[in-house]
Design goal:
The protein has 209 residues and is an alpha+beta fold. 32% of the residues lie in helices and 33% in strands.
Length: 209
């Protein structure tokens, strides 16, 4: 399924109608999705920019539709997102898997945190994925052409060693130790906030360049 049906669902919600009355100049800037391939704990979120408040309005569409106003990282205005995307959400796993196999990566994708935004006039999917084998995959995919612009893999062990919370304690060294840590941290809300922060930092770097 593409993003548009989720947007159409949102348009029918009373909370959205009241939001548009209060903030008529707001506009769509991003789609944010957690695709939990193994566990099925998926998240579907659509973000709007509110010029009056200089904030992000995040609508979560799973179950009862909810709204949160979030602070932005800077004063720059995000680009407006065209809702008519090319890639289906369900197709993201296949796009990544094909590229991974072409690059000799044999792992399978367990979970995808996907953000789509307009960057310099192009719709770009920013994907952060958890793989089998305790590794993380980061990728950028151009929506219109379905072209993989960037793909890189790193170890969860290496990432956790660099986390500030690990500075005062021994970093996990074995896969079993890492699994124990992941079970404690494996909450969708935390993944969303981490992915959002990473994306904002990457966008800041792109704008500098």
């Amino acid at each position: 399924m593409k993003i548009k049906p989720y947007f159409e669902k949102l348009e029918q919600a009373e909370i959205y109608k009241n939001f548009k009355i209060k903030y008529p100049d707001s506009f769509l800037i991003a789609g944010f999705f957690v695709l939990d391939i193994e566990g099925g704990n998926n998240v579907h979120q659509i973000d709007f920019y509110v010029p009056e408040e200089k904030k992000i309005a995040a609508f979560t569409l799973d179950g009862e539709i909810t709204l949160k106003l979030l602070e932005t990282m800077n004063d720059s205005v995000p680009e407006k997102l065209d809702i008519n995307t090319t890639i289906d959400l369900d197709a993201l796993q296949g796009v990544l898997t094909d590229e991974m196999r072409n690059r000799g990566m044999s792992e399978d994708v367990r979970k995808i945190i996907a953000v789509i935004q307009n960057i310099k006039g192009k719709r770009i999917w920013n994907l952060n994925c958890v793989l089998t084998g305790m590794e993380i995959l980061k990728s950028h995919v151009e929506d219109e052409s379905k072209t993989v612009l960037k793909i890189e893999k790193s170890s969860i062990i290496d990432i956790m060693k660099k986390m500030p919370s690990q500075k005062l304690m021994k970093a996990p060294e074995t896969k079993d130790e890492v699994k124990d840590e992941l079970q404690k941290l494996d909450k969708i809300e935390e993944e969303i906030e981490k992915a959002r922060a990473n994306l904002k930092e990457e966008l800041k770097e792109k704008k500098k360049n």
